[in-house]
């Protein structure tokens, strides 16, 4: 078991390193961020001063090594626009994104599992068809459509705050997070419903379920206690990975709802070609994803010994 | 020039539809008339009658995250909005170039305008109680021009003696600025400038208190202490908002009426849409409008007096490489200009929200605007053909035409290309490139043809159009084979024009100066067609005039926060 964990951790570190190198190269391939900054040419000496400040005058491999060294110490440099520490910007954005991701996941699971179980238990019934149709539709609708429709029609009504709103309007975080979380949850919930239905149907055919029924257990106990538990395993994997993705920030949803998370930070940075922020957010997203999927892998190995043997 | 972050790409969507519907090749019968004024475009609105001020109220609006609000680096109109609320410079300006007093009560140049004396109002203080004396201005100017500050906008001070030494790091004080008398600021210039006082209204020339420290002082960057009609209520909450409250110790002018101004940060790429949405859902009291929604916004708000439409100090034009073939003669450039049907594009692509230009100096300069000075700005395909023939611009001639992508310029530039091909039979090599590449291409000594360009003025003077865009000095290349580092990348050079500008810079009388500017414009645009004016800049806003009075647009296209009052 120890060796398995070690192997997974080493893999994770390698993936993170490779990802940082790629994003670093990609960002700087775009070109000199100080070449010009509007319709007015930036005076050459000012551009040079900026380059020196950001170490852009050094060779690229050296820039990368300097960057990695600083990153390990939690220093992501300062951004091009306002010269603020990027670590601070991330620090402010991460809790918002984590909240959004957790609420979205809870909504996912609630809707997805319930819909999936109903569809499986009442197979080929009206409810099954309804779940399948809605799930297929939900997977097909682009997330920005859902977001824009919610902003235009639901925001500003009842418990849902207006978008945009004056920043001094105080809104409790759980109200602010509701609509974006719901937007994010719809597609995942649809996937989970499909996943849950499939795995539930498989489990329901298993011998031990027949045995449980033969013992005279109530249908409720058979489904709730015996069948659901085992059919949740693929859902747990999916949720783990999905959480990793969500922690990395939801660019479209956060931007539509003007929600100050990691995704919003990234979209703003891209618009302004603010390379240090782009690199830092992407690295954070990669780390969040790799760490969570590694944890899921390891947990999975605990749950199902066959994985380890493979 | 100040930067505008507004993504205009949304124009593209409706533009496509509009071109299909209206047919871009439609002929316009609107005559340009004797005055040169055209009937195309949304009319300007008049300011509503002033309302007596009374304290109270919170004015709310959205802006995209500024680069800086600290004077040393405040640059785009968003940053200037906050900065001008927090700081008052030596003088204030009106959109048409009229100057009125700020901290200075009196200002006068010497006979040849190379030295200026500003007399400060007594007992001026920053909101922390520090005195606003001549030393505070010297401090601010040195902070802006210091090499270590790496300010993007230090060029506002480039006429001050000792600026070059500050920029290269060889000096730590601006030798041209004398602050020995706390009530008098003396400024020595390295070249004559009889309009230097206009520059002192720019944010980078604001005074700063000693607590400002160096330009990298994060505390001050985020919560500047100034001498303006408002002060910060807590530090700038990045990506969230900025709250200002009235500065009750303000004495450089009338105190503000509003209790507070709440400025919410909107998304970088969809900020204008957010402002508009926020106005419609009652969250904001002032908003810009996405171009595709202008007609709709006007219809819904004009009758309620909530619609503001103003010509401002800006121009959209085609930069022309005037030193290389095929557009190296005035006739060739005039042929191109007369072959462009500006009215059709204004109506077809811009739905009337843009006004065809008939001059280079914008109409917002009421005392220098010369309607119709651009004689070749009228659509006349027959004359264009004659001019083209005489200039050797024969059918089939290749002409480069580049624009920058991502700015919503695709549709109207395509229409221009089509008109040049239809009316002159030219072979237009038309391409869209990223903005940075466009700039580099324009700078090259072998650049040829046409480039999309726009300009908004830093200071309300015609000189800020003529000098940086058309003077020989502003080419920024030592020899014709060098890259052009200045803003005159078309490399127009005419000694007579330069002479008139130099004369204007040394002329104290405003009327005479404007007259010289007019003559210069007549030569560069009317005779030489050094660049091709297309559309005058016009801005549109929505304002909550039901709740607030005195809501107008200032020179920087921002609301007049210090005058706004609750009704």
TrEMBL record, chain A:
Task: Spell out the InterPro entries in the cross-references.
Answer: BPD_transp_1_N, MetI-like, MetI-like_sf
* Organism of derivation: Pseudonocardia dioxanivorans (strain ATCC 55486 / DSM 44775 / JCM 13855 / CB1190)
Q: Where in the cell is it found?
A: Cell membrane
**What is the name listed in the Swiss-Prot or TrEMBL entry for this protein?**
ABC-type transporter, integral membrane subunit
What keyword terms does UniProt attach to this protein?
Cell membrane, Membrane, Transmembrane, Transmembrane helix, Transport
Membrane topology category: Multi-pass membrane protein
The ABC transmembrane type-1 domain is annotated at: 94-300
Pfam families (alphabetical):
BPD_transp_1, BPD_transp_1_N
PANTHER family assigned: DIPEPTIDE TRANSPORT SYSTEM PERMEASE PROTEIN DPPB-RELATED, DIPEPTIDE-TRANSPORT INTEGRAL MEMBRANE PROTEIN ABC TRANSPORTER DPPB-RELATED
UniProtKB/TrEMBL annotation, chain B:
Q: Which domain of life is it from?
A: Bacteria
Quote a single Gene Ontology cellular component term: cell envelope
Q: Where are the transmembrane segments?
A: none
Q: Which GO molecular function entries does the Swiss-Prot or TrEMBL record give?
A: peptide transmembrane transporter activity
InterPro entries noted in UniProt:
Peptide/Ni-bd (IPR030678), SBP_5 (IPR039424), SBP_5_dom (IPR000914)
Per the database record, which ranges form the Solute-binding protein family domain? 100-474
| Entry keywords, A to Z | Signal, Transport
Residues making up the signal peptide according to the UniProt record: 1-17
List the protein's name: ABC-type transporter, periplasmic subunit
Q: Which organism is it from?
A: Pseudonocardia dioxanivorans (strain ATCC 55486 / DSM 44775 / JCM 13855 / CB1190)
